[in-house]
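hey can u check if this looks right to u? its 156 residues, i copy pasted from the old doc so theres a chance i mangled smth
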Amino acid sequence: MAGLQQHIKPDEMKKYKQLLQRGDRSAMLSKLPELHEKAVAKHDCLTCAQCCKNYSPRFKTPDIKRLAKHLKMKESVFIDTYLTLDDEGDYVTRSLPCPFLGADNKCTVYDQRPSDCRRFPYTDEDVFLKRKNITLKNITFCPIAHDVMKGLADNV
């Protein structure tokens, strides 16, 4: 799955970028639920886990509190052990793949996972259209995000 990026041709990526910049936002928003459901039904995240291997979610304060409590750690120890600040001032994992990704591609803290993980790949939210750079990055490694983007390009 890591090779998905190689399958997105430069002209295809350009088309997606233009669609996100200039496309009919309301038409795209109305298509997202159907495209999301179709893509999620087609792909098994546990056979892929490229999000956990390529992407660090932002760990917001509630996420840190919840995970530290779950792991029976002080918040400061949790941060020192697992997190670092990125260029935007957000806490992200120190390393990839995610330290909570198990060998079986299952999340070892699934019920306590960060909000970003719960929502990824945002294909059923307006964030998919709003955060263009993130979406363009996500479609290079997430087959669900790629299918939704392709569906938008083909149907709007």
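The first helix runs from residue 4 to 7.
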